[in-house]
Amino acid sequence: MELELILTFLQVQHVEVPVPAPAKDEVLVKIKAASLNPIDCKIQKGTERPLFPRKFPHIPDIVSDVAGEVVEVGPEVKDFKVGDKVVSTLNTFTGGGLAEYAVAKANLQSQGPAEVSAAEGAGLLSAGHQALVEFAGIKLDGTGPRKRVLVTAASGGVGHYAVQLTKLGNTHITATCGARNLNFIMSLGADEVMDYKTPDGAALKSPSGQKYDVVIHCATGIPWSIFERNLSTNGKVIDAIPTFSTMLTFAKQKLTFSKKQLVPLFLSSKKESMECLVGLVKEGKLKTVIDSKHPLCKAE
Q1: Bond preceding residue 199 cis, omega within 30 of 0
Q2: DSSP helix/strand/coil, 286
Q3: Which is the most buried residue in 106, 156, 163, 173, by most CB within 10 A?
Q4: Does the N-terminal peptide bond of residue 60 adopt cis geometry, omega within 30 degrees of 0?
Q5: Which pTM value belongs to this model?
Q6: Rounded to whole angstroms, how far apart are CA atoms 224 and 246?
Q7: DSSP label at 18?
Q8: Three-class SS of residue 179?
Q9: pLDDT tens sequence across 153-175
Q10: Which long-range contacts (CB under 8 A, 24 or more apart) does 4-7 make?
């Protein structure tokens, strides 16, 4: 039996259920750490129904980023064995991260080297942040044309990774965040940082007067008109939290052949990207900033 946290129509309960068995292409992971994302809070509040969760009871952590140790492997799994430390993304629709054990597809996990703690691995949010900079055309080896980049909400979960990954490229980085995090974002590699509550910060106006080639947008509530006036001729905004309004603007720009574009980002996990991210943490080029840790028995 294992302890799990389940959601039964907006009420969270701790229960004991049987340990799941891995399918032929899966591994059973004893979870050491799991990261929570804003979507998990929305699911608990019921705002994502009927899409998430599809049925009750539901084991929370729908974007199931976990780290732990392999304790059982399916018959077709070749790349992992019992005892391996791994970083895994669980099934998007069934979740299962807030438990002592969970099953994960072998092709959606990476080896977890000793240099990467379970908490650091679980906090990587798998392939998401890697996709952000790849989609922006920024090469992590520093080659390619120099790009002027803006990262909004840079002190958040997505934003603080985006700053670090973007810094590995040939870039000049402007970032926005709250006043108390200005020094923190500078320490991650931003070239200039603005308090988003100031007039210039709210207007996204670069202190150095630059126009942005790429905006990695990790916030909400900023109209396209503000982005448009701050973009270079062929600049684009990659919206990491796309809304219905984002989709309408994107469609309109496609129809009008606009050079400046607002692009919605829909992430999908890739093993190669996960391995790259874990490797960067191992090499000290990327770090997970952990605000707090809590035992499973305290989750609610």
Answers
A1: no
A2: coil
A3: 163
A4: no
A5: 0.85
A6: 9
A7: P
A8: helix
A9: 999 888 999 999 999 999 999 99
A10: 4/59, 4/96, 4/98, 4/99, 4/100, 5/59, 5/60, 5/98, 5/99, 5/296, 5/299, 5/300, 6/57, 6/58, 6/59, 6/60, 7/43, 7/44, 7/53, 7/56, 7/57, 7/58, 7/59, 7/60
Structure tokens at 80: 């992992």
Place of tokens 């942005």: 212
CA-based torsion, 268, 23, 299, 42: positive or negative: positive
* DSSP H/E element including 244: helix 244-255
CB-based contact 152:218 (threshold 8 Å):
yes
Half-sphere exposure of 270 (CA within 13 A, CB side): 13
- The pLDDT tens digits for 122-153 are 888 654 666 677 778 899 899 999 999 999 99
The DSSP code sequence of 85-131 is: EEEEE--TTT---SBSEEEEEGGGEEE--TTS-HHHHHTT-TTHHHH
CB 99 within 8 A of CB 4: yes
Q: Which residues of 96-107 are buried (b: 16+ CB within 10 A; e: fewer)?
A: bbbbbbbbbbbe
Q: Which residue has the tokens 């509530």?
A: 221
Tokens matching residue 206: 């670069």
| Residue 113 CB contacts under 8 Å (≥ 6 apart), including other chains | 85, 278, 282
Q: Are strands 65-73 and 85-89 parallel, antiparallel or unpaired?
A: antiparallel
Q: Is the dihedral of CA 23, 112, 31, 57 positive or negative?
A: negative
Instruction: Cite the beta strand spans of 45-98 per DSSP E.
Output: 65-73, 85-89
